[in-house]
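Morning, I've got a small favour to ask if you have a moment. It would help a lot if you went through both lines with me. Thanks so much in advance, here it is.

***
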Amino acid sequence: MNILLIEDDDEDALLLKKLFTRNPLVHYDITWEPSYETGLVELLKGKHDLCLVDYRLGTQNGIDLVKAARHGDYTGPIILLTGANENEIDIMALQAGADDYIAKGQLDGDLLHRIIRYAVERKKAENERERLLSEQIAGKELEKRRNEFISVVVHELKTPLTSLKGYAQLLYKKNMKAGDEQSAHMAERMASQVDKLTNLINDLWDATRITNSQLSLHQDLFQFDELVREIVSELQLTAEDQTIYQEGEAKQNVWGDRMRIGQVITNLLTNAIKYATEAERILVKTVAAGNTITFCVQDFGPGIPKELQEKVFAPFYRIEKGGYTSTPGLGLGLHIAREIIRQHKGSLGVESDEGKGATFCFTLPVCSL
């Protein structure tokens, strides 16, 4: 262990050096500086594991040296050495930034070794806490800037996308009127791609608002079964190779954000269509029990491995194996869906056996008229 000793008394310095040699288990390399000025210069180089500073250094004192060292961003442990009759130096030393203090008359080899060891370990722990705190603060600042950047990007993209969608719809109508079905079909596909990009941007914006606890709900009373029928009817038109079967009804009202609950149902059904392309059917079940409604979407696709079932709800997570590798998206849909259901005081989860499909279910509290 490298020790810097700042002591202006030759005899005291020699005595301290001898004390360091009495512990056979630890080897100390001692650097001795006899003055305030040379001691501070050497201390600020930061080459030592610990510094021992005498309180009396000629016309100056060790308290001022400790203050100067801390002001100079020295972070290593410092122990102040005091005389037997120097009262209240202990409090002044700690206030100045010293890690410990000891009267010279109380010193022996074992005590000195223990004090040094404890001071070094305390300083390591303190520096580690400060490092973790700094990283935490930096992480929060980075997250804040990232969210601000996403907000700006979303805002800047939405306006041109709205214009593109309008132009695509105008081209479709003009080409249909002119009898140019091929050009009309291209315009229709253009509008469809704009819709996909808009949905991705909306997902990114929702995920950012969730992170900032700003995802708002516009709640009202609505009939749950009616919402399910609407969405199933709409999505059946896009599922050319799959049939969506419905089982059960809630026959209950829900107090919540109809659009957001519909967003969750759409996400679950869209995933079932997208990930179970080889299956011929998708099963939708609704069950009312007590004060809750349970809604499930069961597909018959590749399924989800047990170790990945909770990860699919993490933001930006996508399964990179089997039938999932080629599916587009940001991996935000299920993360947003779970948060929407959570804000409605419900829960969303999945049950799956690999190779046998997956069943996503959510529960919601009901509201009686």
Notes: The mean pLDDT is 85. The radius of gyration is 35 Å. The first helix runs from residue 10 to 20. The chain has three domains: 2-107, 144-211, 220-365.
